[in-house]
Specification:
Helix content is about 30%, strand content about 30%. The N terminus is likely disordered. A hairpin with a 2-residue loop joins strand 19 and strand 20. It starts with a helix and ends with a strand. Helix 7 packs parallel to helix 8 and helix 8 packs parallel to helix 9.
Length: about 575
């Protein structure tokens, strides 16, 4: 009845010079774009438990030290409920729907493990791999799906709940450094190479020259005069800078690779419905001029409700006097200055792990040898976290970095974790892109929004032994829509997006319907009384599916979302 009414409105609308409704079907494709600065924040009590009772008035937000107006505020609870049953049925065309006897089991949590096999040493990677294997085997979770990725790209496993597949994949992960760093003399790491080549640190140069003179090709050389000694030091500096240049190139390539793969993993898991988190298992790595890439990853993760947890696989890290015995060392008498630089290097490499976790509400597990406990802590998300949003005033489109600070009002004894900064865009935002981003974020969420009341009904009809037509019916309560009056008609545009996911949460397909409404008063009154129903059909194979329905209007910029699940035999 409702569907018939909608079709009548469509047909009669086209009888006039100006149609009352236009319906367009388009495949669902998405792009990511930054239009609002979002700042996740986690607040914990003295026992480390996340607090979920704070209000917007409890927070203060600063951009480069200037207070900002918080225009978006939400409390997110990560205990995602199961998909609620929805009316559905199946049979052959023309038959009455038959409600199934049981609701299919749908995974509610997705965790992607990214092992940084390019930066991890053989020993650290082996311990991390064993700890992860024990976690999978001893803590099975039928409601979760796990994926394994590596920065080298040599070993991957898409989302699965099979512990044997996870075990087999973990055994395949090996340390794969991109170069032969550590065998040169002098031994110059990425951090020191950056200081030497890009920042030209004078105190470091002298320490490196002294260290280089202890290498075999210089140790036996006698320089009896000041001129000979100066010439020898110039030769040592040239050798050190040559090694530093090669190290810098290799380090830049490794960092770009790690960030690119991390971005791809975040993009991949963003397509999964439910609670989503990434665990980056790494010793950390240095960022030189790759801060914008890091910021882009944070923005993508935040907008997709993806938590990035980090685990420093080095455990309780300490600088070994004379160097790391596991790496070939020609000179074992590194002076105190170089050891200080090595400590700075270790700290700088781990900064990115803390930054990614803070920016996305995740956990940064570090300085602890209990890696099994580390995998337990980083496998989930905080029970509560807040999303603060603001639109920077008089923001210059110059791409500059802005420091963020979040403070609490009258909340003693709490620990606050929040995003540390963002980069200004290089061009302005497009309202159409903003709307598209809102719809995409809603599609890959599991939360149900009721700003626009919408009912979801699903039906399927078998078209073959292993194939079927899935019909998704969205009934929209038009009474809650805002209309703009123009030329004697009520104007609005409604976007209705239906997305289909498989049992493991993989995005299968989606269709977006755009309904342009220019309604006469009589037509609007009729639709207010009866609602509007829009049908979307998919050709699918037999299996278990999750359906996500998103409805957004243009005038009020309100949204309604629903979840459903069904099994097609």
């Amino acid at each position: 009845m409702l569907l018939r009414l909608t079709l009548v409105v469509l047909i009669c609308g086209f009888c006039s010079a100006q149609p009352e409704m236009k319906l367009q079907d388009t495949p669902a494709t998405f792009n990511t774009r930054v239009n609002l600065v979002l700042v996740p924040a986690v607040v914990r009590d003295r026992q480390g438990r996340a607090i979920g009772t704070l209000q917007q008035s409890d927070f203060r937000l600063f951009d480069n030290g200037k207070p900002q107006v918080i225009t978006k505020f939400s409390l997110e609870k990560t205990g995602v409920p199961a998909v609620a049953p929805e009316p559905l049925g199946g049979g052959s065309p023309g038959s009455d729907p038959v409600k199934p006897s049981a609701q299919p089991l749908i995974p509610q949590r997705f965790v992607a493990y990214l092992f940084d096999d390019v930066h991890l040493s053989i020993g650290d990677l082996a311990q991390a791999r064993d700890a992860a294997d024990r976690q999978f085997r001893e803590s099975p979770d039928p409601g979760s799906r796990f994926a394994i990725y590596t920065t080298s790209g040599r070993t991957t496993l898409d989302f699965t709940g099979d512990p044997e597949k996870l075990h087999e994949t973990l055994l395949k992960i090996q340390s794969r450094p991109s170069g032969m760093l550590g065998e040169d003399c002098p031994n110059i790491d990425y951090y020191i190479a950056d200081l030497l080549q890009n920042k030209n640190d004078p105190s470091l140069i002298n320490a490196i020259i002294d260290d280089t003179l202890l290498c075999p090709e210089f140790a036996s050389v006698v320089a009896p005069t000041a001129a000979a000694q100066a010439a020898l030091r110039r030769q040592a500096e040239n050798l050190a800078r040559s090694i530093a240049a090669r190290t810098l190139n290799l380090g830049d390539a490794d960092t770009r690779l790690a960030l690119r793969v991390l971005s791809e993993v975040v993009r991949r898991i963003a397509a999964m419905p439910g609670a989503r988190s990434v665990v980056l298992v790494s010793p950390g790595f240095l960022l030189t001029d790759q801060r914008r890439e890091e910021s882009d990853i944070m923005d993508r993760a935040i907008r997709s409700n993806v938590t990035v947890n980090t685990l420093d696989a080095r455990g309780l890290y300490a600088i070994v006097p004379g160097g790391d015995a596991s790496r070939p060392q020609v000179n074992s008498n590194s002076n105190a200055a170089l050891r200080d630089y090595q400590r700075q290097s270790a700290s700088a490499s781990s900064d990115i792990l803390a930054e990614l976790a803070d920016a996305t509400g995740g956990t940064d597990f570090h300085n602890n040898n209990d890696l099994r406990e580390g995998f337990r802590r980083t496998s989930g998300q905080p029970e509560y976290y807040y999303i603060l949003g603001f639109s920077p005033q008089s923001l210059k489109l110059d791409g500059r970095f802005h420091t963020l600070k979040v403070a609490l009002v009258n909340s003693p004894g709490t620990d606050l974790q929040a995003r540390r900064g963002f980069y200004a865009p290089l061009r302005g935002t497009d309202p159409q892109e903003v709307a598209k981003q809102d719809i995409e974020d809603a599609l890959f969420s599991r939360d149900e929004v009721r700003d626009i009341p919408v009912d979801l009904t699903m039906q399927f009809f078998k078209s073959g032994e292993d194939s079927a037509t899935l019909s998704v019916l969205a009934r929209v309560d038009v009474r809650h829509l805002r209309f703009r009056k123009a030329d004697g008609r009520s104007q609005n545009t409604l976007t209705i997006l239906s997305g289909v996911f498989d049992q493991n949460g993989n995005y299968v397909t989606g269709i977006e319907k755009v309904v342009d409404m220019s309604l006469r008063d009589q037509t609007l009154e009729s639709m207010i009384n009866s609602g509007m129903t829009v049908k979307t059909s998919f050709d699918v194979m037999s299996g278990t599916y999750v359906v996500r329905l998103v409805v957004r209007d243009n005038e009020g910029q309100m949204m309604g979302t629903r979840n459903g699940a069904l099994e097609i035999p």
